[in-house]
Amino acid sequence: MSTANLVICEFCDAVYRRAPLRDGAAARCRRCGAHLYSSSRADLHAMLAVTLAALVMFVVANAYPLMMLGVGGQISEATLWQMIVDTYDSNVSPIALVAAATVFFFPLLQICLYAYVLIPLRRNRVPVAFIGVMHALRQMQPWTMVEVFMLGLLVAVVKLGGMATSTPETGMWAFAVLTLLLTLLNSRDLEELWERAEQIERAAGGDAVLLRPLPVEAPDTSVQAPSSDETRRMPGQARAPLLRASQLDLIACHGCGLVLRDTLRHAPGFCPRCDQALQRRKPDSQARSWAFLIAAAILYIPANVLPVMRTSTLFGADDNTILSGVVELWNSGAWDLAVIVFTASIAVPLMKMACLTLLLISSRQRSARWQRERTRIYRMVEFIGRWSMLDVFVVALLLSLVRFGILAEVKAGPGIVAFCAVVVLTMLASMSFDPRMIWDVRSSARTRPRAAEGTGA
Ligand SMILES: [Zn+2]
Ligand SMILES: [Zn+2]
Questions:
Q1: Which residue ranges make up each domain of the chain?
Q2: What is the pLDDT of residues 144-194, one digit of tens each?
Q3: Residues with CB under 5 A from ligand 2 (ion)
Q4: Distance in angstroms (rounded) separating the CA atoms of residues 438 and 250
Q5: Per residue in 52-85, pLDDT tens?
Q6: Burial class of residue 291, CB neighbours in 10 A (0-12, 13-18, 19+)
Q7: How many angstroms separate the alpha carbon of residue 436 from the centre of ligand 1?
Q8: How far does the centroid of ligand 2 lie from the alpha carbon of residue 271, in Å?
């Protein structure tokens, strides 16, 4: 058995032998419940079709206005790019840079890079600079926020509905379709593309771009198959204790997921497939996470105290903090949106910081308690972090749309820059945290979680 047949859980370091799955089934980690791999092989034709459709939708979404706003006979419209330029010209230019990166440049680059990789792969060729492009695609994924912007558009339509007539336009519908297409594209494992490229290289007998993984024998035959939808129906089945990568001297590449024999316990090495430096754990994970977390906690205060928005109408000016914005939505009857904005802008950042603090302290103490639950908390923190960007997009949209001179005008306040920094810093903090530290327990405490394993999955 070669290591090519093995898969290592990126959350808890458990090692599995790949087992064939039913169509549409997914393999999950028995220990922590994380997704390992899915049954379907990448259908390059379908992926390319989705990519090209996304490119068309991206052009449409940017060419047409997102929404129209009418007040007292005056009409205001804004495209995405107009919104970015307006935000840049205001007193909160950092917000414009974040919006331009997360809603314009990264999605566009992602679509183009997918097309660049998929078109040659479909013709059984590996494109030039394949490795670099694949790393760029992986790193861009968490920073593409089209779906968060879409929710921001909906909030803006409702928020403005109270003071003027707001109508969604072509650009907004195109954004909705683009959101669906990008979600579909990002749900694919990039590992499938790595494997496809490797198959092509191997068939051609070449050594141009990709090197072969080292065909080493897996040292232990007790490596189990992961749990899938099928195995879940048979709960009574006896299970041997799961082995960890460190116990088997195996290591998984962070860049491409390739499993290798860890012969370099003391010397750094590089992945033969993607050239990434091989690391057992993320370097300086604790220190980096703490640094980002503390910076975020400090900025959370000005983010909530300073106004994020100043609305001036004929009746006077009004400074809005994040909380007063929520209260306003609630009072105007949009209680569902008030709940969404409260959750995304106030509860989520606070909960994220509390959860990360808990994870950092417990993993520093090498605690063996609630490991499965703590891993779940980490996965949740990673998933919801980006949604806090909602308020940032709403403010950018409002200040670009509401420009009716003395009738009504929206200006951004300094609070929104602090808030945007909190969101980015908490995302960096959770990315720096290595969830495998949760499972690096003291050897004396190691027997306890094993007993609990059989009850889950
Ligand atoms: Zn796991
Ligand atoms: Zn690699």
A1: 63-94+139-167+284-438
A2: 999 999 999 988 888 887 777 888 899 999 999 999 999 999 888 788 888
A3: 253, 255-256, 258, 271, 273-274, 276
A4: 18
A5: 999 999 999 999 999 888 877 788 888 999 999 9
A6: middle
A7: 9
A8: 5
